[in-house]
Every structure is written in structure tokens, then in C-alpha cells.
Amino acid sequence: MRINHDLSKPVIVHAAKLDWVKSPAAGVDRRMLYREGDEVARATSIVRYAPGSAFPRHVHSGGEEILVLEGTFQDEHGDYPAGSYFRNPPGTSHEPAAAEGCTIFVRLWQFRDGDQTQIVRQPGEGAPASLRDGAIAARTLFDDGAERVAIEDWRSDATVTVENQRGLEFILLSGRASVKGGAGGAELGPASGRADAHGKGRAGGALIWFKDAPLQHIDILQMPE
């Protein structure tokens, strides 16, 4: 299966317009934003856990990166409410669940060879970051030089410029935004890069999660044949 696999082209995905696709676990559904592969895939998805659902224990052979969008995501290590961000590097494992249901943003098989950094950021955690014009708050969630992950809060009346030197991925978490060359609710994107729109209405401005990194690292982990 291939979905938005041409990484040389800018893409804006309106996640709310996509169908939910069942996963192998009962009560766990996915909206596929990017995918190369079948059930084992290099993939970016929004995943919805129904109340009381769980996924069997599994090993992250290619690494896993998660942002909790709604509800509380859980595993044997603890609870992760909306706004939590974490990285599970290759070789780690867990048994995820959601007693009351949740929705998460997930990136699979996109770690670099040798990247073993494991972090958990609860809501509000992260290092304060410098503010670009138009931003009123910014936090860095992860930065190892090869990639940077951050959350920024943009004013409702702002025109925000984000440099794209090596690749960008955005999620519109809440609010409204428009991209150069397009307009409308829940649209966001750099001049060259990729963006996903997911969120609910907000009084003003936009809350943005973004990753500044190559869309596919040169030393990305190889998937099994």
C-alpha cells in the first residue's frame, strides 16, 4: 500500500475527511496519512482507540513516535493525557490501551539507524523556544540536531514564516490557518513540505505541532523484506 509516498511533493491532508480503517485490534481504527507497506509499514496515521480497547504487546522494531490528540493514552508505564508526546526507539515494547478512549498521532518506522533516544513529555513539558514573528508561545519537545520537534501557538492575525531547509511536517492541533495559495479552515503547510490538518475549533489563532527534519532520513532504518 502506498499513500502520499512521493516525498518530493507538498501534501496537505484533511484528516477529518478520511475514512477510519480497522486495525488488527478490536476497537482500534486508523486514518492513514502516509504509508509505504502493508500491516508492517513506514507510516504516519491518526489512530482512534474506543473506550476499553487495547493493542496486544508488541515490539517497535522500527521505532514509534506518538502525540496524544484527545483523551488519555495508556500503557503499563503510565497514563498520557492529551498533549503528551513520546518517542519509543527501536527495540522497545509496550501494551497500549485506553480505558476511556483516545486519539493519537503516530509515526512508525521513521527512526534513523542508531537512534535510541527515548523521551516522554507530559502536557506543558519541553524547553522554552525562541518565538518567531507571529508566535506567542513555543516549546521544543525534542532536538538532537538531526531533527527538531516543537509546539507553537500562533496569533489569529499573524502571518507566520517557517523556513524549510530540510523538510517540514505540520499538524494543526486546533484553531484555523491557511497556506499560501489556499485558504479555509484547518489548512496548514509550508511552501515546500507536508502538513496534516486535525483539530477542533479554537477562539483564535492556531496551535501547531511540527517536525523540522528530512522527510526521510538517509540513514533511515530498513524495513524487513
Return the domain count. 2
Helix content: under 10%
CATH homologous superfamily identity of the largest domain: Jelly Rolls
Number of helices: 0
Q: Structural class per helix/strand content? A: mainly beta
CATH names the topology of the largest domain as Jelly Rolls
Termini, distance in Å?
Answer: 14 Å
Q: Got a strand count?
A: 20
Shape: globular
CATH architecture identity of the largest domain? Sandwich
CATH class of the largest domain: Mainly Beta
Could you list the spans in which at least 5 consecutive residues all have pLDDT below 50?
A: 181-193, 199-203
Kindly provide the radius of gyration, computed on alpha-carbon positions and rounded to a whole number of angstroms. Answer: 17 Å
Give the topology, please.
Elements: E1 2-3, E2 11-14, E3 21-22, E4 28-37, E5 41-49, E6 53-54, E7 58-59, E8 64-75, E9 78-81, E10 85-88, E11 93-94, E12 97-98, E13 102-108, E14 119-121, E15 127-128, E16 135-143, E17 148-154, E18 168-175, E19 194-200, E20 206-212
Parallel strand pairs: 2-19, 18-19
Antiparallel strand pairs: 1-4, 3-4, 4-5, 5-13, 6-12, 7-11, 8-9, 8-10, 8-13, 10-14, 15-16, 16-17, 17-20, 18-20
Question: In brief, what are we looking at here?
Answer:
By secondary structure, the chain is mostly beta strands. It is built from no helices and 20 strands.
